[in-house]
Write a structure and sequence with these properties.
disordered N terminus, alpha/beta, 8 helices, seven-stranded mixed sheet, Rossmann fold, about 240 residues
Amino acid sequence: MSETSQTRTFRDRPVSFVRRSGRMSEAQERAWAELAPQYVVDVVRDAAATSVLPGTAIEPAAVWGRSAPLVVEIGSGQGHAIVHAAASHPEKNFLAIEVFKAGLARTMLDADRAGARNLRLVEANAPEVLQHLLPEASVDELWVFFPDPWHKKKHTKRRLVTSGFAGIAARALRDGGTLRLATDWEEYAVQMREVMEAAPDFAPAFDGEWAPRFDGRVLTAFERKGTRHGREIRDLSYHRLGRA
């Protein structure tokens, strides 16, 4: 059963995902048992299984064991992009946010093989992580790569990138921090751009209609699939303006 189909009302707006229970492979179960203590951030829950209780923020320096620039990816999937980035940039801290446990298990397996000890994972609804789990102005870069486009008109209310999300992202990002977006659905890309153009806490970090492809994003099978189906990849990037 998905969280959104339960009878109780857990949240005041729809989440950007439908979380169904799914079986993990033996290797994934083993990874969770053996690697979660190293990689997974403990979360104090509110009512829903992927919620974050307000007032339970972590201290990043304690979680990572050091102070370093923090890069956060929302919807990390199988972890291909963030594991590659974490292994390539050991001087930075990385946090993968995902609601699908099998994807997190795969991420831990790959991170362990790559020796990416600077990566942590959290199984939670991303806006609540930005609002409640991470301290204000603690994030240097926030990545949203290929979020679910919810392309049917009746479902577009589930899209992650909205004016409300822009405000939540602004809270989490430090002054001068960067929000990076990418999608292979042009209509969603246009919506993202409109949302960010209206966001008072952000300024574009590119000239023209679209940002150049972020060279720190490893080319994944998902991105190749979109290109193969004739969908052009659109990148956007924005700087968080200084707080008053």
